[in-house]
Automatic annotation (TrEMBL):
Cross-referenced Gene3D superfamilies: SGNH hydrolase
Signal is among the record's keywords: yes
DUF4886 domain segment(s): 39-165
UniProt entry keywords in alphabetical sequence: Signal
Protein's name in the database: DUF4886 domain-containing protein
Residues in the signal sequence: 1-26
């Protein structure tokens, strides 16, 4: 056998060994891939904001586990009141508001990487409503999950045609959506700074879209709201909120909660924040959100995440 042939065989063997090692390494990496374990202490707004997060995470190649301690309309104080009830008496039903479980029971189910807290949207503009409950919850989470990162989920302002806006001080409410966003943003940032925790900027992303001349929602002033008959509805294009819908024979209005587009925007923000990568590459979108609007929502989400970091 010639020296050249032996050299060639050795080179081929070396290449095969390196290639095999890379394949095994990749398989091992895929097998040992760690899930991100996310736990939410919130309400319907945290449900809205994470509705499409599993789909986005899957498309992005991320394994996600979500735990929830959510009560509709719940404030920081209410969550803490339930904790105190459970600590006084583990058998007190008041301490087990989460489908018969306490916050301690839910948080103790495995190890959580990220735990989020948030204020009830109607109180979000009044910084005096955050303490001592935000700090109490923070300390409680860190006691049970010392390695978890506690994060503030910044909720959003109501739709511009809402009939009510958040409290901004005792006995005083915001006059419009912009003031609600400004006051709630300040309250979230003040408290987050005191606790030294980061913020998921959903409120900023919502306002970035809503305040846009091109992409923001505009009320349909040509619609007769007082004499409307089913199934007629006003033009609600580019709305991020539920808005008007028919509930039997009644024209119902929800200016607070997110619709599909708002839930999509919320999940895009969470994706960018949690994984430190742009959601603009993702193709998933709800069927009710058109491609052009979806592109703008992805841009707004990523811009908001980058600005808050």
């Amino acid at each position: 056998m010639s020296k050249l042939l032996r050299t060639g065989q050795h080179s081929l063997l070396f290449f095969f060994l390196i290639f095999s090692a890379e394949v095994v390494g990749a398989q091992s990496s895929a097998t040992n891939k760690q899930s991100l374990r996310l736990f939410l202490i919130g309400n319907s707004f945290s449900q809205n904001a994470t509705k499409y997060l599993p789909q986005l995470s899957k498309e992005g190649g991320h394994e996600l586990v979500i735990g929830r301690a959510e009560i509709g309309g719940s404030s920081l104080q209410r969550h803490w009141d339930h904790v105190e009830a459970a600590e006084r008496d583990p058998n007190d039903p008041k301490g087990k508001p989460y489908n018969g479980k306490s916050l301690k029971m839910l948080l103790s189910d495995g190890v959580w990487d990220v735990v989020t807290i948030q204020q009830a949207s109607i109180l979000s503009g009044d910084v005096s409503t955050y303490e001592p409950y935000a700090r109490n919850l923070y300390n409680y989470v860190k006691k049970l999950q010392p390695n978890a990162q506690v994060v503030f989920h910044q909720t959003w302002a109501y739709r511009i045609d809402s009939n009510d806006f958040s409290r901004i001080a005792p006995g005083d409410s915001a006059k419009n959506a912009q003031q609600m966003w400004e006051k709630s943003r300040a309250a979230y940032h003040t408290t987050a700074h005191e606790l030294n925790i980061p913020i998921i900027p959903n409120g900023d992303a919502f306002w970035r879209v809503n305040s846009s001349k091109k992409w923001g929602f505009q009320k349909d002033n040509s619609f007769d709201y007082n004499s409307a008959k089913a199934p007629a509805l006003p033009n609600q294009a580019k709305s991020l909120h539920m808005g008007y819908r028919w509930d039997k024979e009644k024209l119902a209005f929800d200016s607070h909660h997110a619709n599909d587009a708002g839930c999509y925007l919320g999940a895009l923000v969470w994706y960018g924040f949690l994984y430190h990568e742009s959601p603009k590459k993702l193709t998933f979108r709800p069927n009710s959100v058109d491609e052009a609007f979806a592109r703008q929502l992805k841009k707004a989400a990523w811009t908001s995440v980058r600005k808050v970091r």
